Amino acid sequence: MTERSPSGNGTKGISADTPSPGRRLPRDIKVMLVAAFLIALGFGLVAPVLPQFATTFDVGATAAAVIVSIFALMRLVFAPAGGALIVRFGERPIYVGGLLIVAASTAACAFAQDYWQLLIFRGLGGAGSVMFTVASMALVVRLAPPESRGRVSGAYASAFLIGNVCGPIVGGLLAGYGLRVPFLAYAGALVLAALVIQTQLTHVTGSREAGKANPPMELRQALADSAYRAGLVSSFANGWATFGVRMATVPLFAVAAIGAGTEAAGWALAVFAAGNAASLSFSGRLADSLGRRPMMITGLLLTGLATGAIGFTSDMVWFLVASAAAGIGSGILGPAQQAAVADVIGNERSGGRVLAVFQMTADTGAIIGPVLAGVLADQLGYGWAFGVTGGVLVVAAVAWLLSRESLHRPSGQAAPN
């Protein structure tokens, strides 16, 4: 069995002791899963109360929304710096440093005395967030066995999903003790995650040591690979639809078009998460056996069609069915997408800058998507808003249809160009 080399030229053998897809995940990957759960749990504590906390400073809904969007904006602005820091210092120091920055900024939010302090503290957290996000992706790329990358990516996404589901429940309980308490709990969860990463990871080679054998991957090298280019398109589309429109536009649609109460939006997010969890249980393994492209194309088409259909639903049942289908599609494409990018980079080199650009495309989509969807909804109706969003996902599926298959193949069987 062979694997494409990190540079894309030639192949290298996979050692006999490399874990097979059926074996247990490596210990360091399990450490990463624990940290991912803690991070997602903490974020879920704060997300439900943040807008409400902002309004306690006598500001309106728009100013409260800015508190949410400043975090994503700062992630986008600082992503290139995060990638450069990973190349210079290595994944683990930047991961731990990013976690501690967000912990400090989140704790500071709990003690904010006015709106502008809250805005500054929350914005600083965005810089730390992109640091640990890109570093965690780089660590997963480095630590995941090549033939189990889809499975590892699926497990990592599942850990985040479980944390995101549990977080709002715990956060709602803590909010009863005051809106500032969840921020302190989130800061504590991040400090704990930093301790887990710093003390429990055992097989992380320093960036400089790894660079002696294989220099960091340059962005131009990655851009020369059709799988990476397709990954950028799908990352942008997924950010637009899943992280942008789903959070910002679906709740508005539930109230304005379906005529249901605000609890309908909560149900829509819940069934999306349920569909996501169901498909994550098998999609990572299929990405390792069938290939990245089939899973990406299937997931993008299903998510795109289901998202477009949401805008044309007129009753609660079909609204929830379409939301669940979109969640299933998102769960199908997620592990394959991350595994494909990992295939391009390989295990034995740093991919900080390459991963930073990949993350930037998702954040850009998450910022642009809700704004454009809101304009379309106001001017032309929700059918157009969700239809265009679904169309962006279908275009990403076409990009994958035209890309190569990045999954390593048995000796003598060439991957498509």
Short description:
The chain is 76% helix and 1% strand.
Decide which structural class fits the backbone. mainly alpha
Work out the count of structural domains. Answer: 2
**The CATH C-level class name of the largest domain:** Mainly Alpha
Instruction: List unreliable stretches of 5+ residues.
Output: 1-21, 207-212, 410-417
Task: Report the end-to-end length measured between terminal Cα atoms.
Answer: 19 Å
- CATH topology name of the largest domain, in short, is Growth Hormone, Chain: A
Shape: globular
| Count of helical stretches | 16
What is the arithmetic mean of pLDDT? 82
Largest sheet properties: 2 strands, antiparallel
β-strand amount: under 5%
CATH architecture of the largest domain: Up-down Bundle
**CATH superfamily membership of the largest domain:** MFS general substrate transporter like domains
The helix/strand series, from N terminus to C terminus, equals EEHHHHHHHHHHHHHHHH
Strand order of the biggest β-sheet: 1-2
Radius of gyration: 21 Å
How many strands appear in the DSSP assignment? 2
Question: Helical residue percent?
Answer: over 70%
